[in-house]
Structure formats: structure tokens, C-alpha cells
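Assemble and predict.
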Amino acid sequence: MSEKKETKNVFEKLFGGMDVEARFGLMRMAVAILIGLGTAIILILIGAKNPLESLKYFFLGPLQIFNPNVAKGIGWNYFDQWIQSAIPLLFTGTAICIMFSANKFNLGLEGAIMMGGLSCGWVCCLLDGDIQAANANPVACAILGLLVSMAAGALITSIPALLEKKWGASIMVTSLMLNYIALYISRYCLFSTNLRDTKTSKYSWQWTENVVLTFRKFMGTRFTLRLGFFIGLAIVVIGWAFLFKTKWGFKIRQLGQNPSFAKYVGVGIVGTGILVQIIGGAIGGLCGATVILGNYNYYYGVELTGYGWDGVTMGIFAGNNPKKVLPAALFIAYIRAGASIMATQPGGPINELTKIVEGVIVLFLLAEKFLAKTHRKMIVEEAKKKQALKAEAAKEVTE
Amino acid sequence: MENYLVMENVTKIYNNGIIANDKVNFSARKGEIHAICGENGAGKTTLMKMLFGIEQPDEGRIIIKGKDMHLNSPMDAIKAGIGMVHQHFMQVPTLTVAENVTLGIEPTNGIVFDMDKAIKMTTECCEKYGFEINPKAHVQDLSVGVKQKVEIVKALVKGCEILILDEPTAVLTPQETKELFVQLKNLRDSGCTIIFISHKLNEVKELCDRVTVIKKGKTIGVWNIKDVTEADISRYMVGVDVDLDIPKKPAEPKENVLVVKDLTVYNEAGKKKVDDVSFSVRKGEIVGIAGVEGNGQREMIDAITGLSKYSYGSITLMGKEVKDMDIKGLRTNGLVHIPEDRNLYGCARSMSIRDNMIADKITDPKYNNGLFINEKAIKEDTDKWIDEFGVLCDDGDQLVGMLSGGNVQKVVVAREFTSHSELVVCDQPTRGIDVGAAEFVRERMVQMRDQGKAILLISADLAEIMSLSDSLIVMHGGKINAFFKDVKSLTEEDLGFYMLGVKHMSEDEIRGALHE
């Protein structure tokens, strides 16, 4: 009995202070995730040759710091795989949070990532001779690559913004088209310019590992310190502070919540709208560069990365608040790593399984009327509770 | 007499947690005009929305002709013989009257819309109930009064036996109101039940047979109209007697703050909406603008407050031409503005009270250090304003969408009245808010005037505009039709004539509006 009371207290402590909406939001998220994971379990039970084994790898795989096979020189470090998958999500999630907060549905992030990776790769190729001749500092080269990539990313997402301002073209449509333009620019550079390594024909020239090593420090064979993860974390924190603690962020949110209101209180709505897209693109470019510098010593962009779309998923999970991007990114990265670990096991189902899980969760998060009855019930209960409290207070006063 | 319609213990809680109706009881008989009175926000409109199937009650029953009804949509309500005339007309302006009237029950000729039959249906209905409307006229060419008749015919043609009118006289002149009442009485005598929502008590007294008073979402009682006086109803509604007379000293106007000269505004469709208007507002006076809705006031105010651009003429604020200023510039030069539509322009409902109050001041160095906003200063000041302006809320972090209409308006007023100001534009400042809040806003306006601000007041509430204004401009057809230096001697009836364009003033008299 006393134990029961105790748990209720913990529950009250955790959720008592929240208002109905926050509590409902949390509950809705939990139910959506449970449904998503439930779907995964059912699919694994149906599809896998060895379901229990597969489930174990899916749910617990990423927690194994050490893959027994790594010692034999094959396979991945599982934990590292988790962290590695989370890195681009941190960037793209924050970028989408900022752009969508202003109601600017610019989907050019994918293109920004392409351009960021390409321009950073180009800088590395150009400076590679100097670095080898010790005329240039590899760290400076990496920083320059990041800066150039931000500019390139910002350029891509600002195009739809300017088109909208000038001719009223729909941002969503133009930004989607631009992704493909960015992709084919990247391909063109790889196949038809001197960026291309004539020997491999598919990739750019390889640059010295020195630049990469500034990004990825191996700590023995067991653990990899990824600088990209920390840059991503910094972007999340800066993005959150920018959006919620500065006057610019305040104006951005005003614009997103009610553009008429923003105009009426004197926010320059056109300029603010363009600004968010430039910022979003810059973060996208940075993401592209970080992925390249963190994993490769050559540029390889012949396909869209898909990270841009992940950003939209992140934005939906985080409700446009960068603060929630970190847990969202860790969650998505976790199930992705789990699925790919599971897929490497003999007889394991394909790792695209996570796409189904993600899709199902997003579906339920976006369905506005999902759990609407429970929502109503919570509101009605809360209102009655408040009314009763008021009546009681009034009674006390009269007494 | 049998009760034709009964609503029993009806409760409605909105998603923002506000209990709009708390076990409300209401009943109406066949062939009566039944008034529902209550302050704004008392829950009248919510009750009617449930009767018309727009909202569904959380508890309680709706019984029509002894049968339990579940009205899940307006379609259900129409089938049950209920018709509603909304505050804002639901009409397609580019279609003809006949087409609008038969919308939803279109007569067809095989598969094609049968215009002749539609006209016949409309004419028959009009003749039966004594409405004079040309079924071939386009709705956009009609006056507000006729549009309302179209709305009523629209309900009647669908065979409605219970007609709900939600503040039908709010947009009408006294003369149009009189005409409407004659027709409503005819309707009643032919067996129709009319539910009349209004807070104009003299109209209720004149028109209705019984009255139900609602206060704070609860039924206070039902009375035969001959048993109660206007003062009685007012007392039941508010609990105290309301005095519209605001104590104020005579104005002491000084130099011009706002000068509007030869202003002409075309709307997006290229129609001339404001036609060569000149006037000025001086420090320390309240200038009122009266007019039937749609006579150019909207476009003129949008031009003055920077919400839209104007075509010809000039507007100067504190001696500076505003044509190329953005709203930020206007605000820096001392414009503050209570907008007509507080939910569209006046606030961001999904942001907190604090955020809303500070919205226009965030660039002020007091509230940010160049990089980060100063949350402490914001909290201190907004807490002070919440207290000063009597905003009823849990705390400043509550979302504005959670507040009642009157409290939202207080947030808007608090933001605007605490900003740097020279010119205060109040556009329908008390529309749709409760009597207490309205009185508060009016008092603050007089206070601002006495502090030497120039105040431009636009209101559809004639009593309000006549009691607050020091001088009054009447607009008709995009022009200034009359200018009263002093409002005291003006009667409401006379004002109505000028608003309708029945009477005109001479050019010389109108020129008095511009002080040079």
C-alpha cells in the first residue's frame, strides 16, 4: 500500500507540474513510439529466421560497446555506429526546427548537405598538396572547409527564399527541385572536373588522413571519439539558445506562430523569413562537411544522402524545439544502429525495418485526431478539477 | 403552451479548458421570439452553436418536439428544422441571391443547376414572409441590411421552424433594425420560433416575448418580457448596474499628431474604398469614426496603421510622411494600435502572455543585451502589467489561447498602452468582451487622452463612440459624410441618418475635421 503511494508521488512529481497539453504530448509520443516498436517486433517475429536472436540485436545491439568480431578485424564497433548515425540528425534536426519555427517549409536541406560536402571536399583536395608539403595546417584546412560548406549550404536554401520574395514561388516546390540541381552539380563536379580521381573514377582525389584525424580520434580499437558529435551538440545548444533566448529567435517564433501578428508588431517578416532559411542552409552545409570529414578522406556524393529528410522527421519528433533534438536523434540513431546490427547477423531481416518504425511513429504523431478522445477527457477532467478547487477556495473565503 | 425546444443541463468545455456552458437549461415555445441575454463571453453563442450542431455538448440533452436529438453537424440541425443567421454572414459574394439562397439544396434540371427554379423558390419564400429582395441581384452589390435578409431567407427556404439570430443588429443602422423587427414579428406570427441573441436590451424589450439570461456559463432565469424592465435584465446579466457614462473632463486638444490629407485608397480588386478623405487628430483628444461597416473605415485604418499601402494623398505622423515607413518605423514614431481582430493581429494564441506583452518591445535595450533577451526584466515588467491591467490568469507563462476573450483583449491593451505612444488607434476596442473589461478599456482610453495622447477610435457600438469621442467623423461611401465638433448634442437617430447617407453635411462643415 505504502509502496503504491510512493510510486504515485513520483508520478506526481514528474508530471503533476505539467499542464494538460504537455502531459498529453508526452503520452501521445510514448504511445506512438510503442506502436512503432510493436510493429517492428511483429515484423521481426514474422520475417526473421531466428526471431529472438534478431530482437536481441535490434533492441540491445547498440549498447554493446565491443563487437566480438572487431578483435578479429571484421565488422563495426556497435556503440560507435549508434553515435555516428546520430551526428547528422543533430544538425538537420536543429536546422529544420529553426526553419519550421518560422513556418518556412524549405526542404532544401538535402541540397545544402550535398553542396556542403562537395565544397568542403574541394577545399581539402585543393589544399592537400600544401598540407603534404607542410605549407598548410590540416586543422586550418578543416576549419576552412567547414566555413566554405556553411556558405555553400546557405546559398542553396536562400534561393527558394529569394524566389518566394521576388515572384511568390512556393518554397516547398522550389526547394525540392533545388535538391536535384544540387545533386547533379555534385555529380558533374565528380565526373567532369579535375576534382575527379582519374583512377577510381567514382570518387574525388583522396586527401591526407591528417585532416580526417583532426575529426576522428581512435582511442584504441574500442572507442572512437567523434568530433562531429560534439559539433552537432554545440549546434543543438546554439540553435536552442538562438531560438528561445535571443530577440531574433523571438521574432522567428512570432512569425511562425502568427505572421499577421508578427507584421503588426513590426517584425520585418520578409527579412526574418529569409534569415531562417539562410541559417538552416548553413547548418545543412556544415552537416555535409562534418559527415565527409568525419568518415572519409575523399568526396563521393553521387546520390542524395537522405539526411535532409531525416531532419523533417527530427523536427516532427522535437516539435520544433532544438532542446528535444538530442533525445530524438539518439532514439532514431539507436533503432537504426540496432536494425543494421541485426541485419548483419545471419538470417536477420533487412535494416530498412527502421524506416517502417520511423514512418509509423511519424504517422501517429502527425495524425491530429490521434487519441483525441483521451485528450478531451483529460481537458474535461482538468477543467472540473479546477472548478472544484475554485469553489472550495470561495467556500473557505466565505467561511 | 408546449415547449417546442428544450436544452437540458447542457455542458460544454472547450479545448482550452474554459467551461463555456455549465449545466445550462433553455427552452422555447412554438411561435415566440425568445431572447438570450448575457455579457459577452457568458456562453450565449456556444449554446447556439450546440443547437446548430457546430459544437457537441459534453453533457446534457437537446430535445426537439419531444424527441432526443443528436446534432453532430449543421446538416443534422437543418434537417431538424433549425436555421441560424451568424454574426458574420456566410455568403458567396459573386453569386446571385437566388444561388446563395438555394446553396446546399440546389434545384436541378436533370444534372444542371436550374436557375429559374432557384429564382422561383426564392421569390415564393420572400413573398410568403414579406421580404423584398431581388433574387437576381449579386450579393456583393447588396447593403448589409439586405444581406442579412438573404441570410434569413436562406434559412427559411430550407424549411426552418427555429431561427437563431446571433446579434443581428450589430451591423445595422437604427432604421434597418426597425425594418428587421417588423419582419421578425411577421415570422413569429406565422408560427416560427425565433431565438434572438443580443445585448442591446432596448431591442430585446421591444421585440421579444420572453428572455433567458445567462451569466458566466450558467442560466440565471427565464422571464416574460412584460414582467421585467431593462434595468432588471441588466442586473441579472451583470449583477451590478452598468453605467456607460464615463466621467471625463472636456478635451484640451493641442497640436496635430496625425494628419490625413486627400487620402484615397483602392482595394486589391481595384475598387475605390477611401475617397479623398482629410482629417487630423490632435494631442489630448479622442476622435471617433462612425459608419456602417464597409464604408471605407477598414481600408483607411489599415493605411494609417501600415497594414496596407495607400494610393494617393498623404498621411503624416508627428510631422513625418508614413508612406514608405514599415510598421516598425511607425511604431518607433509613436503609433500604437488595438486591432479590430485581436485573434488575427492582436496576439499569437500559442505563445505565452509574457511573449505577447513584450512582442513589440523586444528590441528595446531594456529587454535584451544585444545578444540575449533579458528574461528577468521581462518577467518583472509583464508581472506588473498583468497586475495593473487585471489580466485573469494562472501566471504570465500561460498561453494566451487559454484566456477568455476579455482577458486576451486586456493583454493586447496592456502591450499597446505600455509602449511609447503619440497616436493610439483603437479599432473596435471593446468588441466581444465582457462589460467589466470594456469599462476598464474605456477608462484607460480617457486616461491616455488626459496624458496628452492623440486617440483615434473606431467603433460599431454607437453608445460607446458617442460617449467617448470628443469629436466625431461619420463615414459613408468612402467619404467623410459628417463631422461633429461636439458630440453632446447629437442623437443616435440623427447619427443613423448620416451613417446611412440620408443626410449630408456641407463641404465647409466637413473641412472642420482637418485642423491646420
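Residues 19-57+348-380 of chain A form one domain.
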